[in-house]
Amino acid sequence: MGDVDGNPPLHGHIEVDETLIGGRQKGAGRGFGTRKGKTVVFGMVKRGGHVMTQIVPDVKATTLEPLVFRNVRRGSRISTDEMGSYRGLARFGYRHEVINHEAGEYVRGRVHTNTIESFWSQLKRSIRGAHVHVSRKHLPKYLGQFEFRYNMRNNPALMLPRLLLSF
């Protein structure tokens, strides 16, 4: 499904975020400092459009910025949370807007990351409910499946024919 989906360049209003998927560490708090046994997944979604995800080794700017540069057209509006890795986006021609979750801010007009966070929520609920656990080795396949389903959500009748044509 991930191979069939494709990933067109995103433009317009894009939400960018990252999440952790994987095992639970006893006594672990929130955040990326407690990611033993977890896999970092980076995602971008155009509001009302397609989502793109990718497993990444870390959440450093040197890892995440090139993914944005390759997949989001310059001049696009990008909404992120307050994570420092995104601070440099405005220097590269993006209209970067930040929502500060740490301060209890989740929506400010059109600035939010609710769309990508909703995608993460659906993905994680499905893994917990249907699959219970997904190994890091096979996670890209599950991400591809969820991307495909999300990106085809407005054309469900085309899902099966599109898959069959890919063989």
Précis, in short:
With 167 residues, the chain is of the alpha/beta class.
Primary descriptors:
167 residues; alpha/beta; Nucleotidyltransferase, domain 5; five-stranded mixed β-sheet; 5 strands; 32% helix
Low-confidence stretches: none
- The 3D shape can be described as globular
The major beta sheet can be summarized as: 5 strands, mixed
Number of helical elements: 5
Quote the beta fraction: 15-25%
Overall number of structural domains: 1
CATH superfamily: Ribonuclease H-like superfamily/Ribonuclease H
CATH class type: Alpha Beta
CATH architectural arrangement:
2-Layer Sandwich
Q: What's the overall average pLDDT, rounded?
A: 87
Query: Compute the gyration radius: what is it?
Result: 16 Å
Which bin fits the share of residues in helices?
Answer: 25-40%
**What letter string, H or E per element, gives the SSE order?**
HEEEHEEHHH
Biggest sheet strand line-up: 3-2-1-4-5
Structural class assignment: alpha/beta
Distance between the termini: 11 Å
The count of β-strands is 5
- In the CATH scheme, what's the topology name? Nucleotidyltransferase, domain 5
